[in-house]
Design brief:
Blueprint lengths: L12 H16 L9 H8 L3 H13 L3 E4 L3 E4 L4 E4 L16 E8 L3 H7 L7 E10 L2 E10 L13 H12 L6 E10 L2 H6 L7 E11 L2 E11 L3 E4 L16 H4 L1
Parallel strand pairs: 3-10
Antiparallel strand pairs: 1-2, 4-5, 5-6, 6-9, 7-8, 8-9
Helix pairs in contact: 1-3, 2-3
Length: 254
Amino acid sequence: MGTTQFESVQEPKYWHLKTVLNDALDSEFEVGEILPNERDLAARFGVARATLRQALEQLELEGRLQRRRGVGTTVAPPRMGVSVGPSAGEWPGADRDAWTAVGCVEAVPPAQVAALLGTAPDEAVHTVRREREMRGQSVATELLYVPPASVPGLSGTLTPSEHASAVLRELRTLGLDGDDRAVELGSARAEDAKQLDRLPGAPVLVVTTRYHSGGRVAAASVATYRADTCRLTFGDSGDLEVTHHQPDSPRAAS
């Protein structure tokens, strides 16, 4: 059989460098240790700084490195298993929900969110901002969008400090038919990056959820998780251990 098109494609320089760097992280550095600056690393491996940056960005995406404000690039600890939401059949804000509400405003949502909710493009909805911490570290931020029609019993005289808890409380009076989620890779927006102690544009995992009640979408949320520290889990997979090495690698087999 002849050589296929894919077999003839050469490996990009940055990808080969990523493999070399990955081995160096295992053998020469400890978790939390700061890497040398880009100039020194590029000189050590004999590559252009642009190639080095591509390799570092890929390692960050894979959870091996973290870029920290005012610190530099450090070796990341293993990713934490993070459940993607409340237990099945429960609204946000339920007793076992790991999120903390930090505020709520009435505002027109982004067009794609309005499409999910089925609201008019210029209709304001209750927008609850929530945060999630694990091991003392902020790992996710969320915007929960709730149309006024979903919480008709909400008082019109709420103070800012009461708004979020009142919206969540009213949601829980509805019968929840179910929810569906989608996960995709994204880049941190400035506001989310600040909350998560990341740099704008850093890789994040975006989980979009629709909550169904009475045959319609009663609420939708967009949650942004740190891709460098989070391993999203579903069901009972939270205790599954994941390492940086493949089982058949020389280091894992030794």
